[in-house]
Write a structure and sequence with these properties.
Blueprint lengths: L1 H7 L13 E3 L2 E3 L6 E5 L7 H14 L3 E5 L3 H13 L4 E4 L4 H9 L4 E3 L8 H13 L3 E7 L5 H7 L4 H17 L5 E6 L3 H14 L5 E2 L7 H17 L5 E3 L6 H14 L7 E5 L10 H11 L7 E6 L5 H5 L4 E4 L5 E6 L2 E7 L5 H24 L1
Parallel strand pairs: 3-4, 3-10, 4-5, 5-6, 6-7, 7-8, 9-10, 11-12, 12-13
Antiparallel strand pairs: 1-2, 13-14, 14-15
Helix pairs in contact: 2-3, 2-10, 3-4, 4-5, 6-7, 7-8, 8-9, 9-10, 11-13
Bound molecules: iron/sulfur cluster.
């Protein structure tokens, strides 16, 4: 099993930064809580039906937390209906107007993404913090390299990690002065170097949970790569308590990519982690088509499991050693299946397609793992 592999392979261990824990609704963030995966809706928030439908799709993909924008009163008031119809806690994204923050907290938001330094007068700050406290609502300070305070830009000459951390510290100070500690912080930049340096510095100067993100990362492919490099490095260093992959793509893709980053680092396991070869002239079945079809077939499986799909004996048996289920392509359409690294049986894909055969095995294994979990919990 995956956990045993981790225990016997210390070079895979990641020592997570010790952060304090906050709650976003009923989801813990920070401390020893699992690293959560978030996304954001792109519907009009006041279109309750469309927003709820998108949140349901995100929940289905595994989202732990979902953020929605509240650009106007209609949107912040719509939260009351939205939260009734969804399971995940909702973060209200507030810019410019403190009243939206107050309304969002009063209408069911579990967290406000708002920068207290941008709210304005002391009275307004107090009002937003009071609404958050009264409604058990946490806050995310969201520093962004693209919207730093003017005086910080003048001081540092351009957006840079020092300016971002100084900005974060100002917002932190305001919340602390109001005895508010139920918050997390993000320090995003579209530049991977800048974001990573800022998060590292921030991790050193406070123990608040950190929300990781490479902002405006780009489309599905380029954004995934940037996010995997930036967040992957930070997570590997043990930094990060919740993540959001920003893609100019369907938000569901953000959740999938987020989980894939965490899965690659062994930080969180959800669903099947497929290890497959790129294929070459030695392949004994069509690896690329098989993996694409299999991914689709088993997308509903949430049980953590590793499966190797390898085109031939060059790497197949070796990869199978480290996976729960393994398939190695064999000559004459006769393939070898491994379970737990051991040879289990051979099968001829003429009898049954490879996808059907492996999908059935995965489903059976998932049912078995879930039954064992239930038994040990009883
Ligand atoms: S495992 Fe075999 S089929 Fe796959 S890329 Fe390597 S040599 Fe080619």
């Amino acid at each position: 099993m995956i956990e045993d592999h981790m225990m016997h392979r210390p070079w895979r261990m990641i020592d997570r930064r010790k952060s304090r824990q906050i709650m976003v609704g009923d989801v813990p963030v920070g401390g020893d809580a699992p690293i959560t995966v978030q996304s954001m809706t792109n519907t009009l928030t006041h279109d309750v039906a469309a927003t709820v439908a998108q949140i349901h799709a995100l929940e289905q993909a595994g989202a732990d937390i979902v953020r929605v924008s509240c650009p106007d009163e209609e949107s912040s008031l719509a939260l009351r209906e939205i939260v009734k119809q969804v399971k995940v806690p909702i973060v209200a994204d507030i810019h410019f107007h403190y009243k939206r923050g107050v309304e969002a907290a009063q209408n069911g938001a579990a967290c406000l993404r708002i920068n207290p330094g941008n709210i304005g007068s002391e009275d307004r700050v107090r009002e937003v913090i009071k609404a958050a406290k009264d409604n058990n609502c946490s806050i995310r300070i969201g520093v962004n390299a693209g919207s730093l305070e003017r005086d910080l830009l003048e001081k540092y000459g351009e957006p840079c990690p020092d300016a971002m951390v100084e900005s974060a510290q100002r917002h932190i100070q305001i919340l602390e002065e109001h005895d508010f500690f139920n918050f997390k912080i993000s320090c995003k930049a579209s530049d991977v170097f800048m974001a990573c340096a800022a998060y590292q510095q921030l991790a050193d100067v406070c123990d608040y949970p950190l929300h990781l993100g490479i902002t405006e990362a780009g489309g599905l492919r380029s954004g995934t790569i940037k996010s995997a490099i930036g967040m992957g490095n930070l997570l590997w260093m043990g930094i990060g308590d919740t993540i959001r992959v920003s893609l100019s793509a369907d938000p569901v893709e953000e959740i999938k990519v987020g989980f894939d980053i965490l899965k690659s680092l062994g930080l969180r396991h959800r669903g099947v982690n497929i290890i497959s070869c790129p294929s070459c002239a030695r392949q004994q079945f069509k690896v690329i088509d098989t993996v694409a079809a299999l991914e689709e077939r088993i997308a509903h499986i949430t049980t953590p499991m590793t499966v190797s799909i390898i085109g031939c004996v060059v790497n197949g048996p070796g990869e199978a050693l480290m996976t729960d289920i393994g398939l190695t392509g064999g000559g004459s359409d006769n393939h070898q299946v491994y379970i737990g690294g051991e040879k289990a049986h051979r099968f001829n894909s003429g009898d049954k397609t490879i996808v059907d055969h492996i999908a059935a095995m995965i489903e059976e294994k998932a049912a078995q793992i879930e039954a064992e979990k239930l038994k040990s919990a009883a």
